[in-house]
Design a protein that fits this description.
Helix content: 25-40%
Mean pLDDT: 82
Number of strands: 14
Structural class: alpha/beta
Distance between the termini: 61 Å
Number of helices: 19
Strand content: 15-25%
Strand order of the largest sheet: 2-3-4-1-5-7-6
Radius of gyration: 29 Å
Largest sheet: 7 strands, antiparallel
Shape: elongated
Length: 525
Amino acid sequence: MFLTISTTGSPERPATDLGYLMHKHPGKAQEFSTSHGTAHVFYPEATAERCTAALLLEVDPVALVRRGQGKGRGGAPDAALAQYVNDRPYAASSLLAVALSGVFRSALGGQCTARPELPEQARPLRVEIPVLPARGGAELVHRLFGPLGWDLVRAEPLPLDERFPEWGDSRYVRLVLEGELRLADALRQLYVLLPVLDDAKHYWISQDEVDKLLRAGEGWLAAHPENGLISSRYLARHKGLTRDALQRLELVRLAESDGTEVEELDNAVDEDRDTEERPVPLAVLRREAVLAALRGAGARRVLDLGCGQGQLVQALLKDPAYTEIVGVDVSMRALHLAAKRLRLERMGERQSSRVRLVQGSLAYTDKRLAGYDAAVLSEVIEHLDLPRLPALEYAVFGSARPRTVLVTTPNVEYNVRWETLPAGHVRHGDHRFEWTREEFRAWAHEVAVRHGYEVEFVPVGDDDPEVGPPTQMGVFTRADTDTTADTDTTADTDTTADTDTTADTTTTADAPAGTTDTPKEGEAA
């Protein structure tokens, strides 16, 4: 198993800087023990004009069999069929990827203590792998490496036997990559894509493989057009792990497009403290007020936008009048906890067909949210910066346009009644603002006028004669809708078959169960 990485240079910027980047001296041949054989690193050429580093991996087939029975989860079919006579010692695979990460760990991490400026510099690179398994052929090689900044991607199919050309090509290719990239980026791409092309791994796949994938894919995988295929193959087609990886990649993509950090988006769960009141009279009153308004509107298909950890979704599921319930949140951690609270993994088919949890940002329009009877924004708007509020407004009222929209938000005037809340402080650390009753009503009336809704206001909690209720709720009703007629029509046309069809065509995107059970951030107030 063989790989070379070459670069060119000049007297001012010598190619032998590659030795600093690789943390391997060009004048020495070195060897390293691996779990399945021995890795040799040497430099066939090392001058100021051109330098080549070579990695030769000698695989011990006996060690491969003894350590892993020649295969991992879903992987290494050749070794499974012929444990001692197979292509593993010769064809680049996950074995070479693991050797890369072990032998060139510092280079992979972009670290160079002696010359710290070098890892950030792009330099002309040429990567050659003489024998690379490509399940998908040369076309897949181009699809995987093409979007990654290489000027040349050449995958030459290798014949089964040069003496018998009529036998055709094998599933192996000779890979050549040329381009100006940072060495760390090139190594990370190889670390991920070698086992993806082989479509096999020599070790068992577990949850930590998702973290490895995202670390190696930082900066390129989230935007890659084939990230679904890459994630699935890298994780040996393990559906749960692939779903987890894709959800986290989507969060990275949203953060990049929004120019912010992932942590700023994925902040619905405060892991350091339990934010739900004990007891929780206001949280309960808020859910009861929302449920009463939904019943009054005759809603049957409901969106919980910013669903957090699923308290409202759980309450809606208890009422069979709601035939479709969709929880939406940008935070993957919150969706994990919502799935755990709802016990989606153990839910019966009839019940699970009524509920979906999906990841999405309310700052963008989303066709999945159109056509519903009602949408709930419970303690959500105050978590957005004020300049971003118009984007949410259009996404919900202008694009999705449900018949009824319920918006609850804290009444800042009531904060003086909270003895434990210091003066001038908001109720939750992530609240970007809290409005007075007048401010909320002014905003709500403007939204209603702009998008063709009527709005009325409902107090939630004790309505203090001086400062009002702790929570204020706006009930928006689309002006072009006859509530009674809509309710009757929905009741007449909403058959069981219609409900099942909707559920079946949008598979439940429930996140894996979480490991903690903290409440929805909005329940804190």
